[in-house]
Amino acid sequence: MVSHDPGTNPGPAGQVGGTAATPPARRLLDAAAGPLHPTARDTLVAAVDAGWADPARLHTEGRRARALLDRSREVVAAGLGVRPGEVSFLPSGPAAISRAIEGVLHAGRRRGARTVASAVEHSAVLVPARARASGVDDPTLLAEVRVDALGRVDLDAWAAAVAEPGTVVAALQSANGEVGTRQPLAEAHEACRRAGVPLVVDASASLGRDDVPGHWDVLVGDARTWAGPPLGVLVVREGVRWHWSGARADVEHGRTDVAPWVPVALAAAEAWQQTQAARVPDTATTSRLVSRVRDAAAGVPDTHVVGDPLDRLPHVVTFSSLYVDGEVVVGAFDAAGFAVASGSACTSSTLEPSHVLAAMGVLTHGNVRVTLPLPAVSPGLVADVDAFCAALSPTIAAVRASLGVGDL
Amino acid sequence: MSPSPDSFDSPESPESPGSPEATDVVDARGERCPLPVIRLARLVRDDPRPRVVTVLATDPAAAHDVPAWCRMRGHRFAGARDRGDHTAYDVEVLAPVDP
Known about the structure:
The complex is a heterodimer.
Chain A: E1 27-28, H1 38-50, H2 60-80, E2 87-90, H3 93-107, E3 114-118, H4 123-135, E4 142-145, H5 155-163, E5 167-173, H6 185-195, E6 199-202, E7 218-222, E8 232-236, H7 262-277, H8 279-298, E9 303-306, E10 316-321, H9 326-335, E11 338-339, H10 355-360, E12 367-371, H11 381-402
Helix pairs in contact in A: 1-7, 2-7, 3-4, 5-6, 8-11, 9-11
Chain B: E1 22-28, H1 35-46, E2 51-57, H2 62-73, E3 76-82, E4 87-93
Parallel strand pairs in B: 1-2
Antiparallel strand pairs in B: 2-4, 3-4
């Protein structure tokens, strides 16, 4: 069922050899929060010694940390084609997403309080927006714009929603991290411009792995996506009205109250440089591998491969198989050595399935999500994907047989 | 917006005029996904005659998964009715197109 090449990822540290049953080689196919790029890991370790100090301090150690932080910001800013003063580091991608929207809402509070977002935005967008609307018992404060069956926002509905009076902020992802579909940012941004509403683009699923978006007023990324440590990147374009009410002027340009730990920022910048140096060939490789997984999944009976087959992220693919529950499928793949994710309800802590799959109107149970790591993180990536493609059909069939649904 | 049962809502019972006559009912109330869809598929496999089958379910995933099953298996989703403590999903079972 699974080929016997060694796989890419070392087993758990301290694993004792010579046991009767050797566990299968681990194959990482869930890099949404993956291991660090090896060079970024080295940088992080070195920076723990060199950059531990508070960059706000005026002593030698503090000034050294400040220089490293400034350097990190310059690297990320240059990569995004923006000025360093436009870039702030926040503790996480989701924290940066929430803050991005808060800042636009606060700056525009005299004009209204309404948020427009696609129905497939990150929960860091939708959950606070729903809470704001329900907190004042006004459901009109949030418009969740519908998407099509591929997960792409309906542009006519989007344009109508942002033109509604009282709209202060619009939020649209560059691409969906669960299904991979890219969003039409140029058209969505144009509609926002006509309405005078700033557009927050959540690029946390794409930044570092796909082209840097060009159409936004506020941009958000997450260094985990480019094999860095958890670190949110918040970019506020010069001239965009943005203000956070909790600002302390000396911390990250007034966009957070938590100064980043310098070693983390430096490792994120190192990971950015490494991944951008190899991005063109890496993108070609992973995109080809995603196509291979899509083809293999399409060959499994009663299986729907989700999202846009072409206009999509180069490293994300998801599919859903009838009659199986996501938890059992993830467990079966895990036992065979594959780390994959799932958006099915039974794999989360709630009864609700993935809001993304639900909004697309596609099957929510039996869902498997693959997020490919960078080749530099998983040197055996191609072999891992080949093994996964070979294991796909037999694994789903075995799960169906075990659940007594193999004959449906 | 995600498709909600309310958008298909009609207050009538399945037997009332204007709604398709249900000849089979799958009572999957209280069962977690994917059981409601499994039981629907089993019923239709055992008796594939074209007719309307109604699935009663409490699991929120059924709102997405019953219509998705219809699309994937070549049947027609005829609508959902909110009945307070559960939802009734009507499925028009169609004759297979190719054997």
